[in-house]
Design brief:
Layout (H helix, E strand, L loop, with lengths): L2 E6 L4 H12 L3 E8 L10 E5 L18 E4 L10 H22 L4 E5 L11 H15 L4 E5 L3 E3 L9 H7 L2 H7 L4 E3 H13 L6 E2 L1 H8 L8
Parallel strand pairs: 1-2, 1-4, 2-3, 4-5, 5-6, 6-9, 7-8
Helix pairs in contact: 1-6, 2-3, 6-7
Length: 224
């Protein structure tokens, strides 16, 4: 079976890593990356839809129709932000985009990148807002919705959008896996797990790091 996927956040580290895995995977036939700005990535499977404001999607409904899944990898750090501004991006924007896609693709699977430690009742603002977004997405009538909670992620070779912090920690990945085995995975594993959620399904709608690694390693995968 082949899948047509909408992907957001391709100009960021997570989205780029997931995109590279989609482009190389034989089960993915088409990817539409929805970006606020253009990406330099070119591939026969890939098309691009530029949407400067995710609240303004009326002009793009035709392009956003006819897809099997959305891999929502767009996001922003909460550093220096108040809860209202962070909620508008992390909750309001995500839910508006999801509801628009659902109206156009009622049989769609929605895969959402969240984060390790997310909890709608957390005392930490970022975790609480992400948790509310998770809950709201699971309440929508998608075919299936999954919230992925990766921790530290080893970038895929060839990625361009890797923050300096991750470049430094990348060399420490083997040590981090020993110290924090439930908090470390690779971008390849995240991408494969998202694809395998379409191919194989998964019994949980919230996937922690160990779930991500398990799903990525299912028969027919190519995780490392």
């Amino acid at each position: 079976m082949f899948f047509r996927i909408i992907l957001t956040g391709a100009t960021g580290m997570v989205g780029e890593g997931v995109l590279l895995e989609c482009l190389s995977h034989p089960s993915v036939s088409k990817v539409l990356m929805v970006n606020r700005r253009s990406s330099a990535i070119k591939h026969p499977k890939l098309t691009e839809c530029i949407v400067p404001d995710f609240f303004q999607l009326d002009h793009a409904t035709e392009q956003l129709s006819g897809y099997d899944a959305c891999f929502y990898c767009a996001g922003i750090s909460s550093a220096g932000m108040n809860e209202a501004d962070y909620s508008r991006i992390t909750y309001d924007t995500t839910l508006h985009f999801a509801k628009t896609l659902l109206s156009l693709n009622p049989s769609m699977t929605f895969n959402h990148i969240s984060g390790s430690g997310t909890n709608s009742r957390s005392r930490f603002m970022w975790a609480r807002v992400k948790g509310k977004a998770e809950d709201a997405l699971l309440a929508l009538p998608f075919k299936t919705a999954y919230n992925f909670r990766p921790g530290f992620m080893k970038p895929t070779a060839g990625q361009q959008n890797v923050k300096g912090f991750y470049k430094i920690l990348n060399v420490l990945t083997p040590l981090l896996k020993l110290i924090f085995p439930g908090k470390v995975c690779s971008m390849k594993e995240v991408g494969l797990a998202m694809i395998n959620s379409l191919r194989k399904g998964y019994p949980k709608n919230i996937l922690e790091v160990n779930d991500i690694r398990k799903l990525a390693a299912l028969s027919g995968s190519r995780s490392k």
